[in-house]
Amino acid sequence: MAKVLLVDDDIELLKDRSQIIRELGHNCYIAKNGAEALKIVHQNHPDVVLTDLKMPDYDGFTVLKSTKEFDPNIPIIIFTAYGSIELAVHAMKSGAYDFIQKPISPEMLEIVLKKAVEYSKLRNENFIIKTQNKESYKLKDVVCESHSMLNIVKLVLKVAKTNTNVFIYGETGTGKEMIARNIHLSSERKHKPFIPLDCVALPATLLESEIFGFEKGAFTGAIKSKPGMLELADGGTLFLDEIAELEPGLQAKLLRILQDQQFRRIGSTKTIEVNIRIISATNQDPEKALKEKRLREDLYFRLNVIPILMPPLRERTADIPQLVKQFINEFNPSCSKEIKGISEDAVECLKGYNWPGNVRELKNVMQQVMSLTENTIIDVDDLPEHIRKNYELQNNNFFHDIRFREAKQKCLNQFYKTYFDSLLKNFNGNFTRVAEKAGISRKTLYRILNKIKII
């Protein structure tokens, strides 16, 4: 038995349809307007909401938005006597589970409600599993709403239990050092130092002295002895960022350290033994670096025992809402006013941007927006123009400066996306059923979905 909320300003319809819902074995709450509906949502937490679109106070879209803010997992069905393709598209883009026209027959109500209840049950089960996963897989400052990041967190926790060397690669700004720090903090070495070294920050001569340390008088300017990063990292972790930029001679020396776990300071004959774990990272393609002889093959195989590929932000957009929340909390103390949140439209706008600078770029954008906005809720207009551009094209049809053929293709692609998103959701991703419903072949379906980048 599910808890169903029925919202309509038509009293007769409420009585008739609520009776049908109860006969189907569900507990039915009724509301004559949007205000009553939202009160019931907060007090009784329904499993499904069916709401009329046109109502005197809050309309169906207001009920939809407020309910989604309360619990995004509640499926919401909007029905209206004034249906149109534009309204249906807007409803689905706003997060509605379904959009149907009045009059609603008892048979249609039963079918729609059955699917929505099953969907609600599945979403709640997935939410519980995901919540349990989050509790089990927590890392410092790491957001893992997306499947790809959750898998990385699981791998980090497994790797942390070993002393195996790890090689992290991915685009600039994806959080490679953050993952390296979490490997260290989750390991038995966490009480020992984590020493990061940027291999491109210093020239080769200075870099060697930083890594190995030196004795007094070893070279001009060495007025006293200094331990290197290898010594400082003893018992802990040495993080070598941009390892592919390390000078070949230093790569050879580093290989010897990996083999022997010992080294000598510059200007010394004394051998120093160390117990360190090395985590390396690069924003380059390792295979390309190997082919171009910028990365020694023997060193790479020593370092690349456990590879971790950091996905770019554009491939993990499910993480953006939580990342934004994290950055708001981080920057609020330094803002002149408290930022209370961000609108759903602004989040969708952020999700639609390509993010060449990845999480680092998102963090910089949020700091900029929070410093400049005069609002307490960040909206689309607060975001930088280059991020808003694509969103505004898709949502406001700004076609005044492009030719007819291009405008037509943009509209067609948007229609394809809305139509096939709806079918895929309705048939739980079953491509065969979607193709049958659309009246096209699977081959044509794959071609369209590839074109609009749904798959």
Architecture overview:
By secondary structure, this protein is an alpha/beta fold. The chain contains 19 helices and 16 strands. Strands 2-1-3-4-5 form a 5-stranded parallel beta sheet, sandwiched between helices. β11 and β12 form a beta hairpin. α2 runs parallel beside α3, α13 crosses α15 and α14 crosses α16. About 1% of the residues have low confidence.
What is the H level of CATH, i.e. the homologous superfamily of the largest domain?
P-loop containing nucleotide triphosphate hydrolases
**Termini Cα gap:** 36 Å
Strand order of the largest sheet: 2-1-3-4-5
- Looking at how many chains there are and whether they match, the oligomeric state comes to single chain
Q: Please tally the β strands and state the result.
A: 16
What fraction of the residues are assigned to beta strands by DSSP? Answer: 5-15%
| SS field, number of helical segments | 19
> What is the average per-residue confidence, as pLDDT, rounded to a whole number?
85
Largest sheet: 5 strands, parallel
